[in-house]
Design a protein that fits this description.
By secondary structure, this protein is an alpha+beta fold. The chain is built from two helices and eleven strands.
Length: 266
């Protein structure tokens, strides 16, 4: 190889080495500036806050749906049981002969109106009577007449319970109301137990009760509850979910004939 070629190769290698060993300047170095980092952090915080809000909202919705489900299920069960039992008022089996005839002279007993209940609202109560094999707590009546007493009872550590003969039918009941449909010269009128003077005029019953959820703070506070027949409104601020259950019961076993003055003649 000629000296000229050797010099050219040596010069080329020296030039390439200098280029490779040249330090990076601040102009061709790529990095995040402080402003860019702050913007990225802000975007990250917004995303995290959105995820947290979605989580909290989903949890609150789950708590509310769970509370609603429990209240509705328990309320429907209690109402169905009450309607089925109260509808039997005065019932006498066809093969039983009693001094009262084919139905009891006193289908109801112990009517109560606006009794104060600790932790709840003033409520009503009654005892239904009919011929049957066992009462609501499974006891067999000695004389064959079932007597089931329904009333609101306060508890030590929670809201009141609606009980039958001392056994809990449904908990978290804050109001239990009863109206009696009596036949008058002006038609059927609903009155409190204090105004029931003649059992033969009793044709129907209206019952209503309000049920609250176990959990608090599942809805907005400071809510007003209406519809417990003509009682209320009730104001609550504990955030519990509440619902009113109402039903009208026709009494088919009242064997008493209303007075002639109230009977419609053809």
């Amino acid at each position: 190889m000629s000296n000229l070629s050797s010099k050219r190769i040596s010069k080329f290698n020296t030039s390439m080495g200098k280029k490779l060993m040249k330090p990076l300047s601040r102009y061709n170095t790529k990095a995040f500036t402080l402003v860019e980092m702050m913007v990225a952090m802000l975007i990250g915080l917004i995303i995290i806050a959105g995820i947290m809000m979605l989580f909290v909202s989903s949890k609150q919705t789950y708590r509310l749906n769970t509370a609603m489900s429990h209240v509705h299920d328990n309320g429907r069960f209690a109402m169905n049981y009450l309607v089925s039992d109260l509808r039997k008022a005065g019932w006498v089996d066809s093969d039983i002969v009693t001094a009262d005839g084919h139905s009891l002279a006193a289908p109801f007993d112990g009517l109560k109106n606006n009794v104060a209940v600790t932790g709840g609202k003033a409520s009503d109560g009654l005892t239904v009577r009919y011929y049957g094999e066992e009462n609501c707590i499974g006891d067999m009546p000695a004389d064959g007449i079932v007597q089931n007493q329904y009333q609101l009872v306060s508890t030590a550590d929670s809201l009141p319970e609606l009980k039958c003969n001392g056994a809990s039918l449904i908990k978290n009941v804050e109001s239990f109301q009863i109206r009696y449909g009596v036949l008058t010269a002006n038609g059927l009128q609903y009155v409190t137990s204090d105004s029931v003077s003649d059992i033969s005029l009793l044709q129907t019953l209206q019952i209503a009760f309000s049920v609250a959820s176990d959990e608090k703070n599942v809805i907005d506070k400071n809510v007003s509850l209406n519809g417990v027949l003509d009682e209320g409104p009730y104001v609550f601020n504990d955030g519990r979910y509440r619902k009113v259950f109402t039903s009208t019961i026709v009494l088919n076993n009242n064997g008493h004939q209303p007075p002639d003055s109230l009977l419609v003649s053809e």
